[in-house]
Specification:
alpha/beta, Aspartate Aminotransferase, domain 2, Aspartate Aminotransferase, domain 1, 2 domains, eight-stranded mixed sheet, three-stranded antiparallel sheet, 13 strands, 14% strand
Length: 374
């Protein structure tokens, strides 16, 4: 079976994990956690980057930093992972779903302003497949209405919008290092803080509501509970697994882009039968996934089964949140669902991971073409 995904592995992970153990500090904020944070800050220009236990937890931290209150409203696309909504629902917020643009599968920025009410507190653009949302428009709307912007850049590492790293454009950005992502620590994430005024509060939230970070820097002689928080600090072992991938970030990125482009070039001949991914000129993507869109749900079901019979895993992606029981209970759809459901039912993803062989890529291409040409 050609799997849809394999976690990235460079070769130094075991060595660095052993070094973390020998350092005698594995609970977090040790050598490798600090190296990872510094790498992101240097690479992206973010004011402060804090590693977290997951992207979900990074999003939860932003909800606390934005002081989301019961009955506040948060605008986001319905075509996203449940964590995007859950982080704000758990604070009592109502989710307002907005339709997507069918070309990028991102939130339609032209519909956001219509969804704003006096209760709106934040906008959460989700950069699908590492392709940026139209951030200039989103930032203009947010500043006009005094709203927070939290970038869900779970899939967006190494990606840019007009030269700016995803996660550094809004007030906050959230990355994922789940095993399905381009760079992984098994389970993990990062919070990008783009206004230094929020740094100390974020550190307190991340360290169980204490000022322990200040204590470790020698800024206070003892630490204590000062505010609400939780345990969002990842193990040093996780950071040690991630760091060698950051050292080879360009190698991983270039490999994935090569595979993505090969899929695109060799499937372009099916342009009258399938729709290929679209990347706007101002966006630099990271080949997080290669998806195709077929005619409809029925054809997608047939193709997934066809590929499975030939040893190829090709899953579909999100079921729109507004149609799920939780989405019905905790949210509402603003305007018409013109594209979200229809486009989600057409999309399936092809195997793409660091280290996939040319032979496996060729087989996937051959079988997809065979399905449509046969």
């Amino acid at each position: 079976m050609i799997p849809f995904n394999k976690p990235p592995y460079i070769g130094k992970e075991n060595e660095y994990i052993a070094k973390a153990i020998s350092n005698g500090k594995i609970c977090g904020d040790g050598e490798f956690t600090k190296k990872c944070s510094s790498w992101f800050e240097d690479r992206t220009g973010a004011e402060k980057v804090l590693l977290t236990t997951s992207c979900t937890h990074a999003l939860e931290m932003t909800a606390m930093l934005c002081d989301i209150q019961p009955d506040d409203e948060v605008i986001m696309p319905s075509y996203t992972f449940v964590s995007t909504a859950n982080a704000f629902v758990r604070m009592g917020a109502k989710i307002v779903f907005v339709d997507i643009s069918p070309d990028t599968m991102n939130i339609d920025e032209k519909l956001i302003e219509k969804a704003i009410t006096p209760k709106t507190k934040a906008i959460v653009p989700v950069h699908y497949a590492g392709v940026s949302c139209e951030m200039d428009t989103i930032m203009y709307i947010s500043r006009k209405h005094n709203l927070f912007v939290i970038e869900d850049a779970a899939q967006g590492m190494m990606c840019t919008y007009k030269g700016k790293a995803l996660g550094t454009i809004g007030d906050f950005g959230c990355y994922s290092f789940h095993e399905t992502k381009n760079y992984s620590m098994g389970e993990g994430g990062a919070l990008f803080i783009n206004d230094r005024a929020y740094t100390e509060q974020a550190e307190i939230i991340r360290e169980k509501g204490t000022n322990r970070s200040r204590f470790l820097r020698g800024q206070v002689d003892k630490y204590t509970w000062v505010e609400k928080g939780s345990s969002y600090l990842p193990s040093e072992l996780n950071a040690a697994y991630l760091y060698p991938q950051l050292e080879e970030a360009e190698t991983i990125n270039n490999f994935r882009l090569y595979v993505w482009q090969k899929y695109y070039d060799d499937l372009e001949c099916l342009g009258d039968r399938i729709e290929l991914p679209y990347v706007p000129a101002e966006c630099k993507h990271n080949a997080h996934m290669f998806y195709i869109k077929v005619k409809d749900l029925s054809e997608r079901t047939e193709l997934i089964a066809y590929l499975k019979e030939r040893g190829i895993s090709s899953p579909f992606h999100y079921v729109p949140l507004h149609s799920a029981p939780g989405g019905i209970k905790y949210g509402r759809f603003s305007g018409e669902d013109k594209y979200t459901t229809r486009e989600s039912e057409r999309l399936l993803r092809l195997p793409l991971y660091y280290g996939i062989s040319d032979e496996d890529v060729e087989k996937v291409i051959k079988e997809v073409r065979s399905f449509f040409e046969g």
